Amino acid sequence: MVLRRGGGKGGGQPGPAGKQEEQSAGRPGGKAEDHTPDRYKMREKLLSIGDDFWIETQRGRRAYKVDGKALRLRNTLVLEDPRGSPVYEIQAKVIAIKDTMAVSKPNGRDVAVVKHALISPLRDKMSANMADGPDIDIRGNILNHEYTMERRGKRIAEVSKKWIAIRDTYTVEVDAGEDDALILALTVVVEQMCQE
Cβ distance 57 to 22 under 8 Å? Predict the structure, then answer.
């Protein structure tokens, strides 16, 4: 999977070869003072029990790590910044609603609860009920990694295979001003829910 934020110059194309990757000012994985979307690469079928994997920028810089070690014991994945500090935790919720997962801060406070809203052969819909702020709708062809995330009808991220030609890999493009790590955590949730 690739998540995009600030893909470079000229309509989202990477800058000249050899140009050093932008660095974040306060946001791991993102860019400072840039209003273009970012793209990150992620792979399909993310985790087997105990696996870890890196989410990289389109240029190959490691932006976030998904730690799967706690998956076996607590049904939990941890999204970490490049220094290993937890940013979000992703956990299946043991509640009456089937197909529900939560994204929380390392302190345990839930940020979002994601659940299936509609399942059909061509279009799926999930909703991320946000603790603070408007909910995020996730809709499109989720199984084929062609979907958008919207808040109040405005696109905030897009998941697609159209920006990359690597097998079993797709991209996530995050609009400027959004929390990259949260969007990536929601994308990991969608991937996990589709594998179950």
Answer: no
Report the range of poorest mean pLDDT among 53-57, 83-87, 181-185.
53-57
Other Cβ atoms within 10 Å of 78 Cβ, number: 23
- How is 124-174 classified by DSSP, letter by letter? EEEEEEESSSS-EEEEEEGGGTEEEEEETTEEEEEEESTT---TTEEEEEE
Residue 178: C-alpha distances to residues 6, 27, 44, 77, 136 (Å): 12, 10, 23, 21, 12
Residue-wise pLDDT tens digits, 37-76:
688 887 665 555 457 788 888 888 999 988 876 555 556 7
Q: What's the CA gap between 184 and 190, in Å, rounded?
A: 10
Listed in sequence order, the residues at least 6 apart from 17 whose beta carbon sits closer than 8 Å to its beta carbon are none
Distance, in Å, from the CA atom of 74 to the CA atom of 91, rounded to the nearest integer, reads: 8
Cα–Cα distance, 184 to 79 (Å, whole number): 9
What is the rounded distance in angstroms from the CA atom of residue 20 to the CA atom of residue 33?
16
Q: Which of 124-128, 137-141, 149-153 has the highest mean pLDDT?
A: 149-153
